[in-house]
Amino acid sequence: MTELTSIVSIQPSIRAAHYHAYSGRVKEKNRFGYCFAFHFIYKGTGTVQMNGRSYPLKKGTLVFIPPGLKHTFHMNESQPISSYDMYCDFFTKKNTIQHLYFDPQLDFEPGLLTESKPCSELEQLTGITQLSRYPELIQTFIQIVRMNRLDIQYKAEIVNSLLYSWILQLVNLNLSDNIPDYRIQKIIDLMEQYPGMNPPYEQWLDMCQLKKSQFYSMFKKMTGLTPKECFFRIKMQRAYATIHESKRSITSIAEDLGFSSVHYFSLQFSKYFGLPPSELRKQTKVASVSYSIKDEH
């Protein structure tokens, strides 16, 4: 079993840090990082796509992206995004400012990839965190980016110490903001057990002993999703696993998951995963045949 690394053992250093005004250029899309990245949205609105999800961006949003994760930034043309960006090594410093690549087959250089270790605190940070209520964290982050541009004595020691302290504060904030609530967890467990049901919201409110506004607010705070979005994600993940692991028909799977028609199910599945369920089934069959041929040899 892989041993987890504690967040306190990291030794962060900065490869590159700057203020960036997004313009929709090619280098803001379909990109991968050689190292860990923080993006603090200073102004504007938009989205970032990664991990099969689209995260909303607005002033005060902090994005954390681990190395090797494909991501794309989209901006609102009427309110373009500007951000303070920081690209970091957490375990072993690499003497390079290179921090992005765009095609794993063509321009990826293995020697530039940062060292990574399994760390649950870092995994929980992946995605977005709202810092609007924490101006001191915002100011420290901006200060680190600006100080990294200066030519001063002991710059690396000062900047790296500030960054280490800031990351621990961020993790502490993230942990305290996302303590699981047993009432909400109970509802998520029911969604997992019965993904084909029509959501009985009134029953759930009674079970939780919460008003509708409280329930939605607590659910969103704990999961980052509305109950409807969470239930939909569970359905999609169950559909993917069932198509991949069984020979059941697409129609049967759609019915079990409560979709009104296989056509509607296919549309939703395609939007979510980027390919129709029939194509996933074909790929699964091809992979299965390929593995059997290998086994025979």
From TrEMBL:
KW Nucleotide-binding (keyword) present: no
Domain (HTH araC/xylS-type): residue spans on this chain: 185-283
Record keywords, A-Z: DNA-binding, Transcription, Transcription regulation
Xref: InterPro entries: AraC-bd, Homeodomain-like_sf, HTH-like, HTH_AraC, RmlC-like_jellyroll, Tscrpt_reg_AraC-type_HTH
PROSITE patterns: HTH_ARAC_FAMILY_2 (PS01124)
GO molecular function, one term: DNA-binding transcription factor activity
A family per Pfam: AraC_binding
Protein name (database record): Helix-turn-helix domain-containing protein
PANTHER family, alphabetized: ARAC-FAMILY TRANSCRIPTIONAL REGULATOR, HTH-TYPE TRANSCRIPTIONAL ACTIVATOR RHAS
